[in-house]
Amino acid sequence: MEHTVPTMPAARRPGCPFDPPKELIEARGHGPISRFPFPDGHEGWLVTGYDLARSVLADPRFSSRKELMLHHPLIDYGDIEVPPAPPGEFLLMDEPRHSRYRKPLVGKFTVRRMRLLTERVEQITAEHLDAMEKAGPPADLVTAFAKPIPAIVICELLGVPYEDRGLFQEQVESFLSGETSDEDMMAAYIAVQGYLAELVAAKRANPTDDVLSDLTDGDLTDEELKGMALILLSAGFDTTANMLALGTFALLRNPAQLAALRADPALADRAVEELLRYLSVAKTFMRVALEDVELGGRTAKAGTTVILSLNTANRDPERFADPHLLDLRRQDGGHLAFGHGIHQCLGQQLARVEMRVAFPALINRFPTLRLAVPAEEVALRPETADIYGVKSLPVTWDA
Ligand code: HEM
Predict the structure, then answer these.
(1) Distance in angstroms (rounded) separating the CA atoms of residues 68 and 265
(2) Most buried by CB count within 10 Å: which residue of 1, 228, 262, 356?
(3) Pocket of ligand 1 contains residue 158 by CB under 6 Å
(4) What is the CATH number of the domain that holds 134?
């Protein structure tokens, strides 16, 4: 019998904030692919198996094009038309359009370039820890630590001037949180677009030492540069911020793992990979079949939408031993938390640097760091948010 997941689960199991919803784990138990009837009636597929998810991500017969994304897993929008992604917004493009924008950026996000940033990330992290220490316990780790660090890093990389950061950050947050009203989100989105248009013009007139200024050298138009900046911002800020906050929550709930990381700085690299796998905050992506494709013994017909549950794939028992265990010493790498294939996360080395610096710095600065509320009271983002995480994380420590 073919398994069907009738609706996208709206919540996680109480007491299990780090695990994918139980309906998705159960679906994996039935096989790597399930039928998924979208709320608007479209008959799609849901992939929860690691190997199958990875192969879809690597397969050019599956598209990321925005204009093909006509079905929403949670909402019935009826019969809609979706315009293609605006110039520069390459996350939702296929080749060859995608490469035009990704190529000039690749060299700016290499391991070597990102390692050079380490010292600056250490400084930014230390400043925020100093401020937390000075203010004294308790603190909300999201506002004091997890959000500002990646926000400052991405602003510096793009060349957003210091005096604009506060307002800019607020607007970016409000269009990414998934919790503001549609109207407010749209207003914030338009404001960010307007700001980025001005920023691109300013960089073209007076290039400074940053990624955006560098890009004004090539044949990309201002409109294209604006779109690229928007993608970098929206992909690079909320994801890392949620990894830092949810990752801290997960460490505090696994004291033996936390102690191991504190005791052994050499564990940081592996710990970051394991937290990425275990938490998979960028949890769900979609692709559309461009032709009939055989998929795990089924056929995804041309035009069919396929949902990839990356967080469930990263808990696949056929790929990872004891998949639901957070084990910072785990050796079986190769998680899909940064995706795979042509859209694999461009900023992954940057995200790694930020996490490798921030987690150890935090837990070493505050050896008695702990939750300031019972774990069940930590407010989680709803499953409707694109990126999973905590809304706030009240923490305290012995001053
Ligand atoms: C822990 C933090 C992060 C996670 C979990 C994450 C996750 C992902 C995933 C899963 C994708 C693939 C999307 C798809 O296949 O459709 C992606 C793409 C992308 N990410 Fe990240 N990301 C993180 C941090 C960053 C940072 C810091 C930056 C930037 C500066 C960034 C920039 C991008 C861009 C530009 C893409 C689109 C790449 C393309 O379409 O070619 N990400 N990310």
Answers:
(1) 46
(2) 228
(3) no
(4) 1.10.630.10
